[in-house]
Amino acid sequence: MFSAPEMASALAKFLSPILGPRQHRKIAIIGLDDAGGIDLLKRLCGTRIKEKRGGKIGGLVYTGTNSTLNCDFDFVAVEAGGGAPDTYHLWMAAQFQEADGFIWVVDSADTDRFLESELEMGRTRKGRRLRQGQDQAGVNPEAPWLVLVNFKQNPLVQHPRLC
Q1: In what order do the strands lie in the sheet with 50-53?
Q2: Of the residues 1, 8, 52, 105, which has the maximum number of CB atoms within 10 A of its CB?
Q3: Per residue in 48-80, pLDDT tens?
Q4: What does 127-150 look like in DSSP terms, one character per residue?
Q5: Is pLDDT at 21 greater than 70 in this prediction?
Q6: How many CB atoms lie within 10 A of CB 105?
Q7: Rounded to 10 degrees, what is the CA torsion of 79, 83, 88, 94?
Q8: Which DSSP category does 59 fall into?
Q9: How far is CA 43 from CA 1, 65, 66, 150, 160, in A?
C-alpha cells in the first residue's frame, strides 16, 4: 500500500511527461469490455461524451475533452479484446496510436479475465501479428502508462483498512 507522499510522487511521475510544454495532449483509456474505461472517461471529461462508430466493423470509441491547467486533454476510451476481426483491431489501434499517455483499466471483480487483460495490454503496447500477414503496430514505447484497478464491486473508500 502506498503512503500519501508515495502516491503523489507516483502520480507526478506519470503526469510530468503529459503536462510538459505541449499544450494539447491525447490520453487513451483502454481496457476489456465493462472494465470501467467509459465510466472513467465520463468522470474526467468536461464536455459531452461523443460516440464514434467504426463503419461496417461495428466498433465503438468514445471521446471527450477537458481543459484544465491551461492544457487541453483529448480522451479516447476503447474496449479491447475479444475475437474481433483483423479490420476491427486495425481500426481500434488507429484510434489510440498517437496518444501521449495511456490508462489501462482492470475490473478487480473480473478475476477470470485478468490473463486476457494482461495479454491485450501487451498487444496494445507492442503490437500484434494479424492474419494474412498484417501487423498492428504497437504504441510509442516512451509514452507513460498507468494501470488503474477499478473496484466497482468493493470500492476502496469502503475498505475498513483505509477508513
Answers
A1: 50-53, 60-68, 71-80, 24-32, 101-107, 145-150
A2: 105
A3: 788 887 766 667 888 888 876 566 788 888 888
A4: EEE-GGG-EEE---TTS-EEEEEE
A5: no
A6: 24
A7: 50
A8: -
A9: 24, 11, 10, 13, 25
State the CB neighbour count (10 A cutoff) for residue 5.
8
pLDDT > 80? residue 37: yes
Which pLDDT tens digit goes with each residue over 137-149? 788 888 999 998 8
Is pLDDT above 90 for 102? yes
Q: How far apart are CA 102 and CA 50, in angstroms?
A: 19
Residue 76 and residue 60: Cα distance in Å, rounded? 11
Nearest CA among 114, 5, 121, 95 for reference residue 41 = 95
Instruction: Residue 80: name the closest of 56, 104, 102, 101 by CA.
Output: 104
Could you tell me if 70 and 63 are in contact, meaning their C-beta atoms sit under 8 angstroms apart? no
DSSP state of 106: E
